[in-house]
Amino acid sequence: MWRNCRSFSSKLRPSSSSPNPSTTTSMSTFYRHVGVVRRALYPYSSSLYSSLSSSPSSSDPIRLGYSNSHGVRVFSSVADPSSLASTPAVSRVREVVDLARHYGSCYWELSKARLSMLVVATSGTGFVLGSGSTMDVAGLCWTCAGTMMVAASANSLNQVFEIKNDAKMKRTRRRPLPSGRITVPHAFTWATSVGLAGTAMLATKTNILAAGLAASNLILYAFVYTPLKQIHPVNTWVGAIVGAIPPLLGWAAASGQISLNSMILPAALYFWQIPHFMALAYLCRDDYAAGGYKMFSLADASGQRTAAVALRNCLYLVPLGFLAYDWGITSGWFCLESSILTLAISATAFSFYRHCTMQKARRMFHASLLYLPIFMSGLLFHRLSDNEQTMEADSSERMLDGLVQEDRYIAQKNKTEHSRGVAQSRPPVAYASIAPFPFLPVPVYADS
């Protein structure tokens, strides 16, 4: 069988030496038949099939290619694709793509993108809460974009100023600046440009109040909180103020003002950050000590004071749900849900207070990660619009007016009945005038 195949292939492959006339005749007949069949199937390409019907030269190799005109496979020579990859244009494109990927990765890490997204989420929640009955979707997008840029700038400046400290810590030594993947002037230029652009965006697309809050928060984080981390443990509380400003920024961008109702979410963020960072500082005590940071947990060998501070701030979160309901921001269901959620995180803090171990601290840290998104989701789900707040306020006023009127009616009724009873029971102390003696004086009653 294989012998027959070899004999058939030898008939198809012309010899480079002296050609056999019978072989040439058989090949011509073969290509002529192929041309007839192709012409019957594809009559629109007569020139193509005429080339097929002609017998090839014995010196030309047979290769498979594609026709550009009709996409039909024909016998032709094809250029080598590997030669295209070695052209200078392709090399330059590859270099540009690799450079964009490199700096994109560096910018992503400098900005601490996941942390910045959390800041954007709190700012967006504040915008929705401050929008009332109608929400400006474009304004929400501009606010989130501007907040993201300012947060990226603050985080980048933080890494520029802490490059030496980050190089000493296991958790941060692979960042772009300590690892040498990007230069300090480049990172500083990126941070300042994106910060100015974000502040300008908030000023032009929202209002000056929101832009001022963003700029002040950037300055507080980069130029106050960052150096304070190497000076005093109070840096944790200053950092909590920084984290509480973004929802206030969102509220101001939506309403153009700051009111008492806007303080619910900032207060929750402030008190939430204390147990969150206390747990983190306890878990990374050795790393923070190697980096030269003055954290509260480093001066607390047993961990009792750290756990007590975390527990106390967890308990401060308890009344926020009731205040949100009492101030007309949410419905009564949020009060119940917030109380249960706060008691849950307080239970983990109390467990850490009783047994100051790494496992308990890690459990409290994970509970704090769950608390904030659930709390903000509850605020958004149970929030009341301006119309609903007005309806509830009117209903409360009507109820209060009804109670006041009812109290007045009961008081008037009691007064009338009391006066009647006194009038009937008062005995006369002077003469009683009875007919037919009208000349007698009018009786006088004793004052009671």
Automatic annotation (TrEMBL):
- Transmembrane domains' residue ranges: 115-131, 137-161, 182-202, 208-225, 237-258, 331-353, 365-384
Q: Does the keyword Nucleotide-binding apply?
A: no
**UniProt main location, coarse:** membrane
Q: Name one GO biological process term.
A: heme A biosynthetic process
Q: Which UniProt keywords apply?
A: Heme biosynthesis, Membrane, Transferase, Transmembrane, Transmembrane helix
Record's GO cellular component, any one?
A: membrane
HAMAP family given in the database record: CyoE_CtaB
Q: What is this protein called?
A: Heme O synthase
